[in-house]
User: Fold these one by one.
Assistant:
Number 1:
Amino acid sequence: MPDLAACMAESCTELFVFMSRLSRGTNILPHCGPTWKRVRIHLVVEAGSAAASRDDGRGGAALRIGGQELEWAKNGDVVVFDDSFEHEVV
């Protein structure tokens, strides 16, 4: 991550990297970040198979941001959004 290395070298204070793995069927309840100054970037590293469907019969996980639902369909998919909007994993 060259940009991360450059930021660290310049002693930036506004960078935070967190990685998590969601298991099949995981839901994250609706929530909002504390400020509009935070941008979230969600990257699909390993998409679930079509067989790993949700209770509603659709494919893998989806991210709802405000009133829009986005499917996490394939490896490499990226979603960037303002953390202050209500969002959840369904």
Note: DSSP finds one helix and six strands in the chain.
Number 2:
Amino acid sequence: MADFEVPQPKAALRLGFNLTAALLHGLGERRFLIADAIANAAFALQPSRRAVTARNFHLAIPGITRREARRLAATSFRQYARTGMDFLYFHHLPRARLISLVRVHGLEEIRRLQDSGEGAVLVLCHLGAWDAAGSFATAMGVPLTSVMADEGNRTLRDLVIWARAEMGMRVSLASRSARLVLNTLRHGGWLALLADLPGDTPSVEVEF
């Protein structure tokens, strides 16, 4: 559609991204050893962030000890690093290999809606490496359109939007997404809405 333009990060950034992804393809699950090492270093070198994370777990799970809260905080650091590593790993991953890594339930319902020609909205939690789900959806012929917050460094935002476009997903910043979202649904496309923590952009709070 004409209302979607993919940013083009500098050639060096794109080349580095592609080469890193290719390296991780060769490592397979061993990529998590690198992710865990980075996370453990971050956990050790960021005492204030470590303390806040542990305190949040203590508030969310009443009754756990300080040691248990710290252990959960360390685990969350590692899981976050693994999620970031998977963002790179699923970039240009061969289709057959991608499909072999993912289990899906309810694809027949999606196929039924596709056959009807109507647009649809997938409402998901922003939890884990959702790029894996987006890449898999594209591989199965269900290209997704989504929206991301305007927050953060512009260079990094452009790189993320470009990388997801390479995976077959269309991602727009929230500030300029209205036309893209409406046109996607009008043309029978699929929109992925990911519930997340509220940021600086307009949001609607929902309960689970």
Note: The beta strands are 120-125, 144-148, 170-173, 190-195.
Number 3:
Amino acid sequence: MRTVIFDLDGTLADTSGDLLAAANACFIGLGHGPQLGPDDAGTALRGGRAMLRLGFSRLGGATEAQIDAQYPVLLRAYAENIDTHTTLYPGAVDAVKPLRGNGIKVGICTNKPEGLAETLMRNLGVRDLFASLIGADTLSVRKPDPAPFHEAVARAGGDSRRALLVGDSDTDHKTARAANVPSVLVTFGPAGGDMAALQPDALLPHFADLPDLADQLLR
């Protein structure tokens, strides 16, 4: 069965605003002002520790132990306000529905913790569109290891020999290469201008192009 697996942050949804707010809550709690702003959206989509490192660098730096200590604080702050600013990218839902209508299985493979990803997708009202959701802590490994991708395909009822990964980062590109499947990278996210240099199998400027692109790559 043909399968399309999506990354979440920066691919299906722009989660950067809520992620940045959660990181800033850490700095405020430590007695500092907010250290991150909208221009740091690309860092936000690389994960919580990346945001903490950047923010602490603006305060003179921090040890990994200090960053590790703040990471649970960030996760709690994020869980409490997970969808205040987050929105699905235009056309995402309209692209998933025809894939399903064409008999293509769809799922999610993200490096966001599974519980947070489940909550976000339910809050956005689209969890039922996806047959599987694998998070950073679902297995003992995470992307770019290919195992989470293969698990997402399997739980969706698909076959990795006829699957592809839609993402927005070098991590997603590496995951697709490790899984020996086509890599489709979106160009509308914060790092969209950098995607061509990775030489994926396809670039995706608009979700409206995905159904036809998936049909071509999965023949």
Note: The chain has a mean pLDDT of 96.
Number 4:
Amino acid sequence: MKDDLKELAKQLGNPEGETGIEVANMMNATNIGMTKHAIESLNLYKNDVILELGHGNCGHLPFLMNQAENLKYFGLEISELMKQEAIKSNQNYIENNSAYFRLYNGTEIPFNDKSFDKIFTVNTLYFWQNTDLLLNEISRVLKPNGILALTFADKSFMEKLSFTNFGFNLYSLKDAEELLQKNHFKILKSISQNEKVFSKTNEMVNRTFFTVVVKNLKITF
């Protein structure tokens, strides 16, 4: 049982192989409410350039693209498998040059300064290895006054899940807000949501999650 939970935790952080595809499909289904909430909180406008960290299989891309005209989306993943799955399911957006998928190491963002109007990430916070360095990178590639939406499940919910004992760093809303403020972001709003979902171990649970929307205050030259 312990080994199964360890494997699930590993797959949630970095999906691999046939099991990784199954886990990714499950994540897309169980997290779609959180992902849509993050996207909607960005208040996307025509011609916005958007970056997502940890896109999974990116089954949500059509929803994002319907938010405004002429959007450009860039997705970063640490999982080669998820990059390939996202490419397979989003060929139409790739072919018309509105979506791009790349790998990264989870910390260093391979784009130029001030490249993006909006950035979002859902359920990746638990796996960040160097929070200050990654937030500095997010600030660097985000335009001045650009918007970041950080969506994650509440610590009090996550700590009840058996698999989060293996490699997860859990956050309360206060923890996340303090982390963001320390790293040159101004909090615009923090939104709490509750939903009923099937957990990764196939149990129906009540999940509380937060989306913290912040503005980039750091100026890069």
Note: The first strand starts at residue 49 and ends at 53.
